[in-house]
Backbone:
């Protein structure tokens, strides 16, 4: 009996320790912007989900394509139906890790810029991405900021030939994730 | 011939006006949208947890009115997020309010029973709704 109680204690302790290493956000902000002669395209969402493991540096995020909101209805319809095909590819994901994890101290307030590398999947196409990310740690909350450019052709996003020369072929993406302890509601 | 030219000119103008209007059409104000479904938060979440594909087919892109407890409220300069959760589940309905709706939820407190109307985007760790507003017309879901 004592052995059983001890085993349960160890298992629960391990689960708790594992959870404590994880930081989570459920309302992360992702926006994108592209400037072009025909039209500037801009949209954002504040519903990205991300988990960061402080111990291993593993980082993942996921966002629903349909959650991006545009100012113009027609632009949002084209984005979902023609470009990103959100019914077929509803989510975009990133799975990667912090390179040089020892340069970030999640338990000490400060600002740390490190490189994050992994695979970004958009429109069902995965591509390797390495980008600088700035972590701002303040009172147990980690704010991650990153900006990077992607080429639409890398993700098989086809631009209709009629507007091919009038729409930018690259898009600037800005990510802001405010992580908190997983234990918090 | 003149009347023909005039008619063509009018037609071209009308098509142009329609195109311009369509190009600049804004997203509809959620306040003015009639919900396709009115649901309790736990019922809504359960359906996604049970069968995500089926729930997506039923609810994604639709205007939904959801009644539940405001378990958590996070307000920033640009947006506000209300987490509807009965307190028993790890899964919430995440309601993203736009900047223009920040004012209407400023008096909302954690634990308040509330009805939120928004557009369902799908399911990640939680069910996601965007362009949300408070649904004063459906304070109680039957």
Residues:
């Amino acid at each position: 009996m004592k052995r059983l109680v001890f085993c349960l204690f160890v298992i629960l302790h391990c689960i708790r320790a594992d959870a404590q290493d994880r930081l989570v956000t459920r309302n992360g902000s992702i926006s994108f912007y592209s400037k072009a002669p025909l039209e500037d395209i801009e949209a954002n969402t504040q519903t990205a989900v991300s988990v960061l493991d402080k111990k291993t540096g593993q980082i993942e995020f996921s966002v629903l394509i349909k959650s991006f909101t545009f100012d113009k209805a027609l632009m949002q319809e084209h984005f979902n139906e023609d470009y990103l095909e959100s019914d077929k590819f509803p989510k975009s994901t990133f799975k990667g890790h912090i390179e040089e994890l020892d340069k970030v101290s999640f338990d000490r307030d400060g600002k740390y810029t490190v490189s994050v590398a992994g695979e970004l999947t958009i429109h069902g196409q995965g591509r390797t991405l390495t980008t600088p990310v700035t972590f701002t740690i303040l009172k147990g909350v980690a704010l991650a900021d990153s900006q990077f450019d992607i080429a639409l052709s890398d993700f098989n996003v086809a631009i209709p030939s009629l507007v091919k020369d009038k729409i930018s072929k690259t898009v600037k993406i800005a990510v802001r994730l405010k992580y908190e302890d997983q234990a918090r509601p | 011939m003149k009347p023909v030219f005039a008619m063509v000119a009018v037609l071209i103008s009308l098509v142009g006006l329609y195109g311009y209007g369509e190009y600049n059409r804004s997203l509809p104000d959620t306040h003015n949208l009639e919900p396709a479904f009115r649901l309790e938060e736990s019922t809504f979440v359960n359906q996604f947890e049970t069968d995500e594909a089926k729930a997506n087919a039923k609810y994604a892109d639709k205007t939904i009115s959801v009644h539940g407890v405001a378990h958590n409220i996070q307000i920033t300069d640009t947006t506000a997020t209300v987490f509807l959760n009965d307190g028993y589940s790890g899964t919430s309905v995440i309601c993203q309010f736009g900047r223009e709706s920040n004012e209407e939820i400023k008096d909302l407190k954690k634990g308040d029973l509330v009805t939120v109307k928004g557009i369902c985007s799908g399911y990640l760790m939680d069910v996601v709704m965007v362009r949300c507003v408070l649904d004063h017309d459906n304070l109680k879901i039957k």
User: Anything to note?
Assistant: The beta strands of chain B are 37-40, 63-75, 80-84, 93-97, 113-123, 127-134.
